[in-house]
Every structure is written in structure tokens, then in C-alpha cells.
Amino acid sequence: MNLKAQTLKVTLAGNANAGKTCMIHRLIHFQYVEGFHQTVGTATHDWSPIVGDKTLDIQIYDTAGAERYRSIASIYFREANGAVITYDASDEVPTEDLKFWIQSFREMAKVNAPIVIAANKADLIEDRSALQTQVNKVKEEFGYPVFITSSKTGEGIAQMFQFLAEKIHEVFPDSITIDSEFHENEQPGCQC
């Protein structure tokens, strides 16, 4: 019997211009690219982190954050195994928007799917003490791990996604499927 990893689904969500696409580009390609256009609809990216002795197969859905695309974005939360909810930490914390993204995810995703929050664009903030205070407030209010990240410098990106992958593996440890070759030799009907 051949077993292979099931593709796990992670959704990246948050308001427009929070830096979601740049964050994914940093994770996948290890570089920062200035001037990405806003995502329309969604884009997917494959990522294969190692957790313990296993390589996970994760597909990351980079969703549009613009208000007119919110209903489309929430479609990609369906049956998701985890989420990164992102906000621009250099701006005022969008508390109501974070509530919207988290609630939308919880309504559509798999039960107990882990969420992390990314306080992105940390490179734009000189007062790190104020940033840490902001992050602590967000963590206290929402009850999810909050990571200080910067797509530009790479700060916190790999650590946050690795943490999420480990949490997903804890919640969904048996995410394997039986390879289709195994079923080709089976006879139809009951084998009782």
C-alpha cells in the first residue's frame, strides 16, 4: 500500500495592502519584490515544510483583501487547515477587520484549524517597544499567536509559517491518503 501526504490548505487573508503577496513571495522565493499589484480573486503557492520527520504538502491561498472581493476570499476558507490573518502593523490596528477575517475563517474552515496573526511591515516601525505593545494587545484581544513580520527584511516570515505548519500537523496528524494505485487492483463490491 502506498501512502502519500494529503495536500493541506492554508489561507492567507487580511485587508488590501497588508503585504500578503510580498509575504508569500518572501517565503517561497526568499526575496522581496517591490510593487506587487493587488491580488484579484486568489493566487495559490505550493510550500513543503519539514515537520519532525515528515514533509508536508501545503497549498497557500493568497486571497484578495479589497473589500469588494471579501465574499470571494471567504470561499477559499472552506475546508482550510490553517490561516494567516495579516494586518499592516505600521497603520492603526484594524480591529473590526481582523474580527471579520477570523470569524469568516472560523465559519468555513475545518474544526480547530489553527490561526496565526501577522503584524506585517515591521520594517516601517522605528519604535519597537510600541510595536511589541501593539502585538501584545492584539494577542490578548484575539487569543491567537501574533508574529511580528516584515516581507522586506524577512523578519519572522519563515518562523511564523513553520509554527503554523507544526500546529496544523498537531491538529491534523493523520493527513494521509491511500494512493490510487492501491485501489486499482480491488474488486468492486463487498469483500466480506
Structural class assignment: alpha/beta
Number of strands: 10
Shape: globular
**Helical residue percent?**
25-40%
Q: Please give the count of helices.
A: 6
Strand order of the biggest β-sheet:
3-6-2-7-8-9
Mean pLDDT rating: 85
Radius of gyration: 18 Å
Poorly predicted regions are 177-192
- CATH superfamily, by name, is P-loop containing nucleotide triphosphate hydrolases
- Kindly provide the name of the CATH class: Alpha Beta
Gap between N and C termini: 20 Å
The CATH level-2 architecture is identified as: 3-Layer(aba) Sandwich
CATH topology: Rossmann fold
Spell the H/E element sequence: EEHEEEEHEHEHEHEH
Largest sheet: 6 strands, mixed
Percent strand equals 15-25%
Question: What's the domain count?
Answer: 1
Question: How are the secondary structure elements laid out?
Answer:
Elements: E1 3-5, E2 7-14, H1 20-29, E3 42-47, E4 50-51, E5 54-55, E6 57-63, H2 70-75, E7 82-88, H3 95-108, E8 115-120, H4 128-142, E9 146-148, H5 157-171, E10 176-178, H6 180-184
Parallel strand pairs: 2-6, 2-7, 7-8, 8-9
Antiparallel strand pairs: 1-10, 3-6, 4-5
Give a description of the structure:
With 192 residues, the protein is of the alpha/beta class. The protein has a single domain, classed as P-loop containing nucleotide triphosphate hydrolases (Rossmann fold, 3-Layer(aba) Sandwich). Helix content is 34%, strand content 24%. The protein is built from six helices and ten strands. The strands form three sheets. Strands 3-6-2-7-8-9 form a six-stranded mixed β-sheet, sandwiched between helices. Strands 1-10 form a two-stranded antiparallel ribbon. The protein has a two-stranded antiparallel sheet with strand order 4-5. The chain is globular and about 45 Å long.
